Amino acid sequence: MYLALYRKYRPKKFADVVGQKHIVKTLLNQITANRISHAYLFCGTHGTGKTSIAKIFAMAVNCFDNKNGEPCMECESCKNVLSKQDPNIIEIDAASNNGVDNIRDIRDEVKYPPINGKYKIYIIDEVHMLSVGAFNALLKTLEEPPSHVIFILATTDPQKIPATIHSRTQRFDFKRILPQEMFDAIKKYMAAEKINISDEAINYVIRLSDGAMRDALSILDQCISFYFGEEISLSKVINITGNIDDKNCCEFLNALNEKNVKKILDMTNKIVMDGKEISHFLSALIMFLRDCLVFKNIGDDENVLQLWNDRAQILQNCQLSSLNQIKLLEVFSQLQNELKYAINPRISFEISCIKFCSDDEKKNIIQTNNEIKISKKIDTPVKKIIPTDVKELIKKWPQIVAKSSGLLKEILNLSYIGSLKNNVVYIITNDAGSNAILKQKKDEIKNLIDLDCEIDFICKDDYEAEHKKIFNQDDEELKKQLKKINFPIES
Ligand SMILES: [Zn+2]
Fold this sequence. Notes:
Blueprint: H1 5-8, H2 21-32, E1 39-43, H3 50-62, H4 76-82, E2 89-93, H5 100-109, E3 120-125, H6 132-143, E4 149-155, H7 163-166, E5 170-173, H8 179-192, H9 199-209, H10 213-226, H11 234-241, H12 246-257, H13 261-273, H14 278-298, H15 311-317, H16 322-339, H17 345-368, H18 379-385, H19 388-403, H20 406-413, E6 416-418, E7 424-429, H21 432-440, H22 442-449, E8 454-459, H23 460-472, H24 476-484
Parallel strand pairs: 1-4, 1-5, 2-3, 3-4, 7-8
Antiparallel strand pairs: 6-7
The chain binds zinc ion.
Zinc ion binds near residues 63, 71, 72, 75 and 78.
């Protein structure tokens, strides 16, 4: 039977624990000096070893032949723990047993002494999930715990733990495991498993798991079972995890740099269609931007960057200026928070990107927002000649935009109204991408505008060129004809 790496390499004694050196040392000293506390609070993000260390500690305090704080692994008590048959260790997951009754049960039980051992150890995982009533019940037990009882409370969210509990426990903060520590451990496990994996693939897994050993091992499990018997390379890990490689990130960021909205939307669409999560893509972009900034400012520093293969080359290909990289990092980091609550992460993501692309042009639009947004020199004649309903429309434009929603609203907000020929209203966009989207939503826009006229879409550059052609040309005959159809033309 295949045993998941995480289970197989779960540390059984303190010496096997990866990272958390400060905690391990303190606990070993406490056991050797017999200065054990009756209540501990283990705080830290998931996968940093809280419950593993809690179990080793529980085994060590009851071991009959303890060796400098380490459990012997051979006495009856240790064997019971290892075979998960120890009646003295009681594990409770507060995420599913969070009611006051669960804790009252503990209160009744703690009175009874341990069976063939020194201590009864209660490990309560995700303790912040307890109800208020349950916390109060727990507090009563913690106030006067019998000498044979040890509580280990573990939490990923210490801020939710009442101060009264904090003050009655000894707190340990579990840190994320350092990349080098993870690398050394994984390298050892892979050798023991006789699995051929490249260093760059291991580094990538470490980066993805962000200091959580459990995550790293479960990603490796996925890769090993999918590519059974094959060498595991970086591209295989990328393929399995659905993550976005550096080349994609670079291409996307360059599209943002060029303000190429169409390409941005196309690439986003492809990512979604490939079954990848927008939030993962966003994390990859943030990582890439961060590495780009580091690379541009301090170069290839192996303590800060993990450069593999042609990574330096890819980082160099990113055309964004440092200033824009910082700006985007801010935008994306804020978005990362918002995405947790977003109903449609894709739309939020697209809006942020389009906003970034339109930032420079926004100023010009605001300047002209209350007037017809075409060149100033023809301002006065146009006012006279533009059909009344189009003039009305320009006035009502903000209200019309307000009636729309989502991506459409975002684009319309940055667009403006113009007129080139009679009875045609032009919606002018800043770029071809927005233009393409609006074209697709023509019916929706027609309904919003609710005017008996044609609607057409045009990019700002084309509109201005068209405008110049009309107003600066010398063809008297054409001018005459245009006048006939009430064309906005200089008199
Ligand atoms: Zn033992």
